[in-house]
Design goal:
The chain is 16% helix and 33% strand. It has two helices and 14 strands; from the N terminus they run H-E-E-E-E-E-E-E-E-E-E-E-H-E-E-E. Strands 1, 2, 5, 6, 11, 12, 13 and 14 form an eight-stranded antiparallel beta sheet that branches. A four-stranded antiparallel beta sheet has the order 9-8-7-10, with no helix packed on it. Strand 13 and strand 14 form a beta hairpin.
Amino acid sequence: MTKEKSKIQEYVEAIILAILIAFFIRTFVIQAFKIPSGSMKPTLLIGDHILVNNFIYGVKVPYLRSTILPFREPKRGDIVVFIYPEDRSKDFIKRVVGVAGDTLEIRNKKIFLNGLPYDDKHGVYVDDFIIPGAIQPRDNFAPVTVPKESLFVMGDNRDQSYDSRFWGFVEQKDVMGKAMVIYWSWNREAFGVRWSRLGKILR
């Protein structure tokens, strides 16, 4: 009976340890996400599964979101996963276009950063129609300055992304990590694996 108890105890302890290690890795080191929308096309496609580095911007206290061991701050061009400001039960993924202190403006789909044309090498536009700023901010956006400890983010699929142009800034404390690599990609329309995308480093 004692041997049986000790074996059961060993199994229970091993399971608990495995759960704790998995929780630690998921919370502080690396986390998996699935892309549900086309807002980051062509960089990320619907059905891409990615790994996100939760460690790169520092160690955050779960739930409190305060950083206790900062390493570096998000920079322009980083693809970041963050808590969606309008619904904190959801995670969003976008690219950082502006950091604290930057002034951004959009004129007829052209981005201006601190008064100069922005080198928008990741942005893709799928239509030629220009929407006036008085109707919505997709193509024309009045100058705004990014507040302290905040980010201005946009989807690479500029014409089909719901991002900072519509709902404002992302607080840095809500950034969960930086997207690193595609580890799996499933094309649900063709019902097949996108083999060429596996292992793609995200930039």
